[in-house]
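Thread: Modeling a multi-component assembly for a lab meeting

Hi all, long-time lurker, first post. My supervisor asked me to bring a structural picture of a complex we are working on to next week's group meeting, and I have zero experience with this. I have the sequence lines for every component (1083 residues in total). Could someone generate the structure of the whole assembly? Inputs are pasted exactly as I received them:
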Amino acid sequence: MVDYDYKKPKSLKEVFGLLKKYGPKATLIAGGTDVMINIRNRELSPEILISLRGLSDLCYIRKNNGYHIGALTTHRMLEQSDMVRAGLSALHDAASQVGSVQIRNVATVGGNICTAAPSADTAGPLLALDATVALEGPNGRRRVPIADFFTGPSETVRKGNEVLVEFDIPEEPGHFGSAYWKHSRRKAMDLPLLGIAVGLALSESQEISNARLGLTVAAPVPIRAYKAEEFLIGKRLGDDVLVEAGKIASSEASPRDSLRGKAWYRREMIEVFVPRMAKLAAERIRGE
Amino acid sequence: MSNLLYVGKGTPRTIEVDKVTGRAIYINDLKLPGMLYGKILYSDYAHARIKKIDASKAEVLPGVRAVLTGHNIPDVRVGFLRDQTVLKKDIVRQFRDEVAAVAAISPEIAEEALDLIEVEYEELPAVFDPIEAMKEDAPLIHEVDARGKPIRTNILPLPWKFYAGDIEQGRKNSAYTVKDTVSTTWVNQCCMGTSGCVAEFDMNNDLTFHSQTNVVFLGKQRIMEYLSSIGMRGRNVRVINPVVGGSFGTKLDTDIYEFICILLALRTRKPVKILFSREEEFRALPPRQPAVFTIEQGCDKEGRLTFRKAEAILDNGAYTSWGATTPSVMVMPMSSLYRVPNVSFEATCVYTNNIYCQAMRGYGNPQATFAVESSMDELAEEAGIDPAEFRLINRNQSGDVTPMRLKITSCGLEDCINSVKQKLNWSEKRGKRKGKGVGMGSLIHVAGGARVYKSDGHGMIVKVDQNGHIDVLDGGTDQGQGSPTIISQMVAEALGFRPEDVSLTLGDTGLCLWDAGTHASRHTFMAGNAAVRACEKVKQQILELAVENIPKVVKSGFRRKKRNDPDFVEPDLDYTLISKPEYLDIKDRMVFPKSDPEHPFFRIEVSQIIRDALHVGTGESKVVMAEAFYDPPTEMLDRELKGNLSCTYAFGTTGIEVEVDEKTGEVKILQLFAAHDVGKAINPILLKGQIYGAAYIGAGYGLTEEMKLENGRVMNPNFLDYKMLTAKDVVPVEPIVIEPGDEDGPFGAKGIGEPGLVPTAPAIANAIYDAVGVRIKSLPITPEKVLAALKEKRK
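Re: Modeling a multi-component assembly
Sure thing. I ran the full set together rather than chain by chain. Output:
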């Protein structure tokens, strides 16, 4: 029987107090679109739910020496932000394709990352955008590069007494663009079979000065395709180069056969969509 | 026909306002005083012996009112072949096997009680592939039949064999032949409303059963037979439909949960509700049957079909429901879609440890048409004939009697094919192979009832009261298709009233006359024909009363005037104008003489005539009411599966343009034209709604929908992993309505509930072939399958 207590603290301090008191018996809940499903599936049976929705000051998108996104920012806010659309296109692509409008209205980006599903839509873009995760605990704040955040399916470096509070995304110098492809069977109410995020910085002469590739559902955790990135940097943007980068990225991935898709197909799609997303990112740089 | 006021108009579905505002009472909302909640415990294994069931902990849980197992209920077999019991106590044969059931004061307590029931199993070898299951050494799913006779095979004792003409002769006459194997898989009906029911016994042991069934009378019969078999012979049963959120075949059989609910109500003496979760809907309802077809066809040099030979193997699952009878419908497209003189069709249903199957929209026709229409394109290519032209050469025509003895009366197939061709710009677009392609598929389906039971009758009662209001009591059901609107239109048209004057009561065995069921696309055709007949009688009654009462009304008016105005002179009226019923007519709720419709004195409201006939003061008062029972002049299939089982047949063609991404295997439907010979559109809005919905489900059947079973277990029992298309996955459907008019249909109409779905999947497969030159032979056509086929082709 589903039975639990529910607290809605107003400050982080209160949250830390409750976490200390209840320890592993407590589960943090933000939008609830993952937690509630897990409770109903009986995969999760917390004695107490600590809602973060009282922490309204963790709900923001700011640009000030880089981008700062509060953990409680909803996918819908990201979707409707012109700043995100223009500067963090890949994140915009991802946020606007999560579930349905109703889900995006409540589901938070912090929750998406803390659930740490291999298929988390925002994880790939945050990797490609080189985001840093800010975790706050009773003893203060620490920052972790998102590439180091995930440790396994549903596992992260976040400690039981910590709350993810913010994402910081550097503002790239020069011409930077990004794009995310959610490879799914439907256009709504779906999870990605594969997620491919590309962040690209180009020089005036179309030389790739920086590249980051974030892949989801390609490994037990969201990953960067470092070798493909290394290959790209310094090369001129062109079909052959991108095709090769796709192949390298595919070799870096370790997708598995699952009910939702076959490993061979996922590998092939990495080869197909790394070039396609890189091209889209480049088009966005050129303002097309 | 040209003067129709309401038939043919897009009357909005006014009664649906309650649905969209949340007021309608679905089974979910139904709550009776003292009602308990039932939950079912299912098997943990696909095939196992039950060693022990210990429900003692569940029985003592506070709030639990009854715990049932196979050990404390009557050991009685149920189902189409009586091959199962309500609760299983010895052997489970599939994961959905019902092992125990609980009634409690809340659904949560019932759920908790299920967790406390301990069942010890000993796993048995299982078989999940029908072809494996046919082998001699395969594990036997059933060891004895309903009579206790030993069974030695997993093949069902239902040999479906159809032969017409001479296949060998057909082969000899062929210039070209093709042979191929195609397959389809399980799909769920995905009703928006999940399954459920409420059972309540009174102190006389009479049962009121709130059921979503679309066969209220056959459902009642099955329940009475069951009650009789458990020692309650002669108890009354009333089956009442709540508002139903879709059926698509799921409500054709009386499902096990319904028997369980009845047993729980009987045990507790309280009303009991069982309501399925979405997961149960996927795991514990019978889906559409998967089938593998081997199909061979030939044609002569001119492209005329010479023979068609097909064999089907159907995975029946562990028990038998209506799914096992779908070959009786498959035989229709196999024998009668296009003119083909020599036909052989054999279908074998095989028990496995998979989930057992039922009916779903199209009832075997979508599977069989996928086979026929895939093969048609292959044969056209072999013969070097354009596939549209090939279909036109072989099209069905009015006056045909098919090898199955179907009598084709009206037939718009030629128009359907041609209009799809034209809309798609077929000749221009076909054969380019640049990632874009066009394809088509056609269908035949029953559209004038379907005599699958000894009565294909449909009863309707029509009464008009003294307020001028019409109540229609119809034996059919409304599972969301909009019958009340259609019937209102037809009754209003037939009686000279407005649709808004008509109220419908459907789906209640206590009030209505027999109906064979709202299935087989038959409700509009049947109810329409019954309405026309009942309204004719009602109209006659009204006109007879009018003959009697109009002079009285007119004269009493004159008397009143005279009292007020002594100088008033009564006009000299010709009362012969209204002296016989046949001189009168009704329109817009007014009775009037045909010879002078605007007559200043003889034009009277119907309600006044009925009021005067009822409130007579002294003498014999009268009411207006008539019933009609319409049973079409059709035949049941004989032993050879031949017979004209429907009064008329629907034809249609779906034409599709697709774009295939050759790198990803993804298929996008660019255009979908669905041309349907509907006889006559009673309500174009509702008609198109049926076509849109069917095309969407058809596109899902073709591209995305599949229940994934692993060793008998449904692995994707939710809408995240079961890929029903959403509104965002736009399929641009354009219906093309062909209206040749049908002489037997009410106002010329044919049934159109199922057809739209049937040819969609093969049209997609054919369009993909045109686009990229690979033929996908198993549904659904996933990107993986397309990409793998493309890679294979490039090798």
